[in-house]
Amino acid sequence: MGLAHSTVSGIAARLERHGLLSRTAQPDDRRYTRLELTEPVRDWLDRDLPAARLGPLVDAMRNATDEERSVILDGLTALRRLLPESRRDS
Length: 90
Hints:
By secondary structure, the protein is α+β, with helices and mostly antiparallel strands. The protein has five helices and two strands, in the order H-E-E-H-H-H-H.
């Protein structure tokens, strides 16, 4: 990420204080720390984030004219065609 260790450590400490992640020192090498999201954060990512991301798109599509929706669909069709086969099913 291009950040200094002290910067990342400070960010991790603040997130840990707020209950958003946990830090565990690696038992075989204490120079390394494992960072894990807490259960509430994982639940939020699974349950609420997708809807929060899609909300603005749904609103935009509701406000679009039929012609604008058609242009968007054409663009998405072209994009799908241009994406490598291996990425289409993921």
